Structures are given as structure tokens and as C-alpha cells.
Amino acid sequence: MGAAAAAATGAASGREFPSNYDASKELEREDWKPLFLDEHQNQTLVVFSEILIPATDTPGAKAALVNRFLDAVLAVESRETQRSLLDSLGFLDGESFARHHAAFVYLTAEQQAELITYMAYPHTLQTWDESMPPPYRGYTHFKNLKDWVSRAYYSSPVGMKALGYSGAPGGVFEGCK
After folding, report:
1. C-beta of residue 56 within 8 angstroms of C-beta of residue 93
2. pTM assigned to the model
3. Domain for residue 167, yes or no?
4. Which of 11, 49, 55, 151 could make a disulfide contact with 60, Cβ separation 3.0–4.6 Å?
């Protein structure tokens, strides 16, 4: 059935939730399973995210459940967007295998940090001139993963608290009465 036919028959109506429904509680469930990512991709995202935004005096990306939020978003994204993130995770593992003969999640913390640092800063000062080699694809993949992770983290309750956000000034907007 096409979208127009579904709309005409009412079969495409939106999903309704109770007024007290909190979608973030679904992410906190102990029996949570990825909807889109496979287990290895999920674990790679957890490790990468926690290296990028570690727990310090505020909780890190792992505590913010960044991987779970991104899995839920990716489950409903376009194939092109899904492919982009999967390509970046795949590149991370590919570089890991090329350099250390193991998947990223199995590297030591030092090896993981070294690889991510190289992907984030692939050029030394000696190569910052007109004879610079072609752009390193790893930077594009690092930037893609970093953008996804940082947006997910800083839009989460944990990330907003880390930013010092305590809610809208004046409380919740009630609208016109």
C-alpha cells in the first residue's frame, strides 16, 4: 500500500503515547537491545563515545546512554544517513586492524586513544604547507562520529546538566489560555 493510500484509509496515523510517557526510560531498561546497530557496532560506539566524552566531574557519554539514543535515531533515519555512520564505524575498525591487528574495542586504552588522536589530528606541523598530502579520510570519519556523539550527549539530560542548563527561565510554557 502506498503512502497516499495509507493516508486515505487512516492506516498511517501517528503513534500515540500517554501524557506521562518518557521515551528516555526506554533507553534505561536493563533488557535494552539495539534496534539498528549490531552488538559489535554498538560496543564500538560505546567505547568511542566514552573516549570522546569521558566521565570527569560530570558523567560521560556512556552514562548519558549516547549509544542507545543514537541507535534509536538511526533506526528511523534514511539509508544514506545510516550508511554514513556505519561507514565511519567501519573505518575506525579498519584502521584499528591495519595498525594493531584487532578490532577497536579490543585495543588497549592507550592504543584506542592513539588511533583516535591520529584520526582527529592527522597532520603534523611539518606537513602543513603546499606539499601536504591529500586529505586523510580518517579525519572525515572521526568528525562524523564526533558530531553524532557530541550532539547526542549535549542534548541528553546528563549533557545539558554538564552545560549548566537547569531548565527554561520562568518554568514550562503553558501557552495561551
Report:
1. no
2. 0.78
3. no
4. 55
Q: In the predicted model, is pLDDT for residue 174 greater than 90?
A: no
pLDDT in tens, 39-66: 999 999 999 999 999 999 999 999 999 9
Nearest to 45 by CA among 120, 136, 131, 112: 112
Quote the number of domains for the chain: 1
Residue 37 lies in a domain: yes
Answer for the pair 141, 91: CB distance below 8 angstroms, yes or no.
yes
Domain that holds residue 98: 32-122+136-162
